[in-house]
Design goal:
Order of helices and strands: HHHHHHHHHHHHHHHHHHHHHHEEE
Strand order of the largest sheet: 1-3-2
Distance between the termini: 47 Å
Structural class: mainly alpha
Helix content: over 70%
Largest sheet: 3 strands, antiparallel
Radius of gyration: 25 Å
Shape: globular
Length: 629
């Protein structure tokens, strides 16, 4: 008897493992761990940046080093936004679990490389930036395929709960990263990167041993021109946004910089060419036909607008806490980064409470009511933040953050489940990648918008306020005017990094010439927070106004998604293990038949039938066209 081959043994193990009732929970646990570690690393540097720069011996507030600061923050977000669609497409072609496993390994490798940085100064900072970008490649592979893998193994009546747990945990990871970075960085800045290594090793081995591809693979041609134009266009736009919030030629921001304008306009043109290319090629990477599914389009539009409203919020709240509120309440500037993360914990609690509950409820009643309600609640909390005094009472601030987290969690889980349920089984990878691209790109765009609005608000009143305040404390008028003429972004970055703002701006030489009492007052915990409170409040009002509008439009988009909409599972999808030699024509042999019931709508996409799940009638069913994807 011929001994079984390695592939045969693996197929047998796959059939045995996937046939067990608890297999889907193993999948959920591992993919949630992957999403969590990827999103934790999107924010873990925010609180840890002061210790990282001190460890490297770099002053990030020097004009030439501003780019280092921004790219350490934004590089990871940019690369994940650009690559998730391509990795989702590759997952559809070669196996989602295979791409996901590779993502865990790549992410872990470059976490190690980040933690063993041996260089210092500017060279060390650029090493970290490059390694962060490569770490983001692994993060993109994880994020692109986790939702699709979950959708493959969970039945439709449990997907909302499963995807809700995954999505909300991922969003909460961005807030967990704040606290984790603040705790680890004072011990050693290398721990900020090293903490991901044991988790990554465990997740990589666990995924390789226990996860199996159960979804449909569709071997198609790659789309080189689509990949190239999409990457070039999106990178240009996101890089333009990154540099647009930096000062340029005496201006507070760089939106008039010819290079920024070229990147934004040129990137937009290239993305337009990308859309044209995708309508011409035989096998496009970006399935524009998926936008014919109303639930997919509305869900992604709502997700994009939600991310626009939420993405920059984290930065604004950190600056609010670190630059104003915490120093006024007795915290040293050096300790504010950690405490800012701790004081934002109520928002994370709201996410974790609302997400699983709303996901479970959306399985029964559909996504529309919960996702729309979540955005309305979030908009209401932005109104409350707008009217909250800059020197607030903490329990009021914490309560607003808790409700904001509840609203965002109420939205995120059902919306993600609604998007994934609307996708044909053989398009789940690319569809999930498209959805993640919108969300991650919107996060970068949101940071640019929020920073721009805050800086615009500060630039109107901060210079005069800062100059008169310094002169009143004995600072020479020439030096006071020089500091007042600095771009407000320098003040924001000083606050974000937990530096003593006035001490950093004045320098030791000027402080040494002042009477001791005046120098102590200028660098103490009351002068700068009181000085910036008024101008900062002006910027906050504009920024929160934008967030309110974004959330309300997201609520409208969410409501327009229609009734509860789920693609039916083709019989071939249950065959285990997934095989790459299944002919493309075999995908979805059971053709859809138009139903006589007017409340049942049918779509045909690559032979996969779309039907409403039980309870769809409760969600105001609407007539949908039959897209060909």
């Amino acid at each position: 008897m011929t001994a079984p081959t390695r592939q045969t043994r693996r197929h047998a193990r796959a059939e045995r493992d996937t046939g067990k009732p608890h297999y889907k929970w193993i999948v959920l646990s591992n993919t949630t761990l992957g999403s969590l570690i990827a999103t934790i690393n999107s924010s873990i540097l925010l609180i840890a940046l002061p210790d990282i720069f001190r460890g490297l011996g770099v002053n990030p507030l020097e004009p030439g080093n501003t780019s280092l600061l921004l790219w350490l923050i934004m590089g990871y977000l940019v690369v994940t936004a650009v690559l998730v669609v391509s990795f989702g497409r590759l997952g559809d072609m070669f196996g989602r679990v295979r791409m996901y496993n590779a993502g865990f390994a790549v992410f872990t490798l470059f976490s190690v490389m980040l933690s063993v940085t041996w260089m210092g100064g500017t060279a060390g900072a650029w090493w970290l930036i490059v390694m962060r970008v490569l770490q983001g490649v692994g993060g993109a592979m994880l994020m692109a395929n986790s939702s699709a893998i979950i959708t493959d193994v969970f039945p439709t009546n449990q997907r909302g709960l499963a995807l809700g747990l995954n999505a909300v945990t991922a969003i909460a990871g961005s807030f967990i990263g704040l606290v984790l970075g603040g705790v680890l960085a004072p011990i050693s800045w290398r721990l900020v990167f090293l903490v991901s290594v044991p988790i990554g090793l465990f997740g990589t081995v666990w995924a390789y041993l226990r996860l199996h591809d159960t979804g449909i693979r569709q071997r198609t041609k790659l789309d080189p021109w689509g990949n190239l134009t999409f990457a070039v266009g999106l990178i240009a736009v996101l890089v333009g946004i990154t540099y647009g919030i930096q000062p340029y030629a005496g201006h507070t921001m760089g939106w008039s910089n010819p290079w920024v304008l070229t990147a934004l306009i040129g990137g937009g043109v290239v993305l337009g060419i990308f859309c044209l290319v995708e309508t011409k090629v035989e096998e496009p990477m970006f399935r524009l036909g998926l936008f014919r599914i109303r639930a997919f389009t509305a869900g992604n539009l709502a997700s994009l607008l939600s991310a626009l409203g939420r993405g920059g919020l984290m930065f604004i709240l950190i600056i609010w806490l670190q630059g104003i509120w915490l120093p006024q309440h007795g915290y040293s500037f050096e300790s504010t980064p950690l405490w800012a993360g701790i004081y934002m914990v109520p928002m994370t609690i709201g996410f974790l409470v609302a997400g699983p509950v709303s996901g479970w409820l959306s399985d029964r009643f559909g996504a529309r009511l919960f996702a729309t309600g979540g955005m309305v609640i979030a908009a209401a909390t932005f109104v409350l933040l707008m009217v909250l005094p800059v020197d607030f009472v903490y329990w009021q601030f914490a309560l607003i953050l808790l409700v904001n987290g509840l609203g965002m969690g109420l939205f995120a889980a059902p919306n993600r489940a609604g998007i994934m349920n609307s996708l044909p089984p053989n398009r789940r990878g690319v569809g999930a990648g498209m959805s993640t691209t919108f969300q991650n790109a919107a996060m970068v765009l949101s940071i640019g918008i929020f920073f721009s609005l805050i800086i615009t608000g500060l630039s109107h009143s901060l210079p005069d306020t800062l100059s008169s305040g310094l002169i009143a404390q004995g600072v020479p008028a020439v030096k006071a005017d020089q500091i007042a003429a600095l771009p407000p972004v320098a003040v924001l970055f000083a606050s974000l990094l937990g530096y003593n703002p006035i001490g950093s701006l004045l320098g030791g030489d000027v402080l040494a010439q002042l009477p001791p009492g005046h120098a102590d007052y200028l660098t103490g915990r009351s002068f700068f927070p009181q000085l910036i409170s008024g101008p900062f409040a002006d910027g906050l009002a504009v920024a929160f106004g934008f967030a309110i509008v974004a959330c309300l439009i997201a609520a409208v988009a969410s409501w327009l998604r229609g009734g509860q909409y789920v693609y039916s599972e083709p019989k071939v999808e249950t065959m285990l293990p997934a095989r790459s030699d299944v002919p493309e024509d075999a995908v979805g042999q059971d053709r859809a038949v138009e139903a006589a019931d007017p409340d049942t709508w049918t779509s045909v996409a690559d032979g996969v039938a779309a039907t409403p799940s039980p309870g769809a009638a409760r969600d105001s069913p609407a007539t949908h066209s039959s897209p060909t994807l």
